[in-house]
Amino acid sequence: MKTVITASGPRRLHVRNLCKGLALSAGLLLAQGAFAFADDYRLDVLDKLRIRVVEWQTAEGSVRDWSAISGDYAVGAAGQISLPLVGELPVSGKTTAEVAQEIGLRMQKLFALRDLPTASVELAQYRPIFVAGEVQTPGEYPFAPNMTVLKAISLGGGLRRDDTGQRFARDFIRADGDASVLVAERNRLLARRARLQAEIAEQDSIAMPKELDQAPEAAILLESETELMKSRDRRQTVQLKALADLKTLLQTEIASLDKKSETQTRQLSLVADDLKKVDSLAERGLTISSRKLTLEQRTADLQAALLDIDTATLKAKQDATKAAQDETNLINDWDATLAQEMQNTESELEAVTLKLETSRKLMSEALLQSADAGAMKRDASGADVTYVILREKDGRPTEIPATETTQILPGDVIKVGYNVAMR
């Protein structure tokens, strides 16, 4: 798209002067730029340009605005910009004035223009700078005119602050907290082990472990374990007493059934004798058959009762055997439980002891490193901050010593370090 401004008569001369004034302004922009070294500044990758092109048409006495070409352009990785209609234009290593002249010449040749178009090329955004080394936030930052090394470092958050001592302090506090928890856990396990040892030995009291002699909470721990031991002992005693009572009851029932069986056996013997006598009399016709029938019925009842007594006796003996077995199992299970708890306690105690030793080693290491860091900090109190600018020259990186007030250019890499004089 292009805009044409026409003029005639006296206005033609005015417009012509206006166009010359625009060309002069463009020249001033190229000469001055955005900072003092614009004439010497060479474009490179990541620079952004703002371009405007106008043409004074002498024959028509008008100004043509080439708005299709005007706009903002970034220098690509190949060091060139791509303009509509004009195409690819190499700009790396050139000044803005040279680029403007090249744009005008290309357009005049490409479109066979009588008058040379005037291009205004200015830097819209400079390529970034890079801050590295002993700064809080190294990285890429935008460039601004009149930027110095100190300003660039301020963009990176300033010099890196030494928090080594704080880190070691945090490590020590964390390890100390872990050690306190582990000590409490170890003391609790020691008290538990002492209680288990007393239960296995069937003792009435718990002996104080020598590892707990200096522990302030030892008395409380032993009192708690003693109460637990008494509670467990009472529960086992009640269970054993219940089984013992059941065995006694069953033995009494068995004895009673035995006596009842003896009585029933004597009665059955007497009835059997009567039945024999009645059979003898019945054969001689001296007694009635109803008496014989009554004795036979009595014999059957006694035999049935005797069989029930035998069955009840057998059931009571089975229950007594089971109660005795339950008593034995209860004692064996209790012994096995104590042995398993003792094994688990020893395993947990060993693990806690190892963790406690590790925490104490970490505490010692944190203290040692903190002391070393403090010594190094004191020894390095005469450290000097050094600044080096890494700049591309003739396609090769060059290191330039600098100070805080050294001016930097777009694309520079500022390296910050320490020159420590050890004493």
Automatic annotation (TrEMBL):
Residue span, Soluble ligand binding domain: 129-164
InterPro entries: HH_AprE-like (IPR058781), Poly_export (IPR049712), Poly_export_N (IPR003715), Soluble_ligand-bd (IPR019554)
Positions of the Polysaccharide export protein N-terminal domain: 39-123
Species assigned in the record: Mycoplana azooxidifex
Protein's recorded name: Exopolysaccharide production protein ExoF
Pfam families reported for this sequence: HH_AprE, Poly_export, SLBB
AprE-like long alpha-helical hairpin domain ranges (all copies): 179-360
Signal peptide bounds: 1-36
Keyword annotations from UniProtKB, A to Z: Signal
Gene3D superfamilies found in the cross-reference section: Outer membrane lipoprotein wza domain like, wza like domain
GO molecular function, one term: polysaccharide transmembrane transporter activity
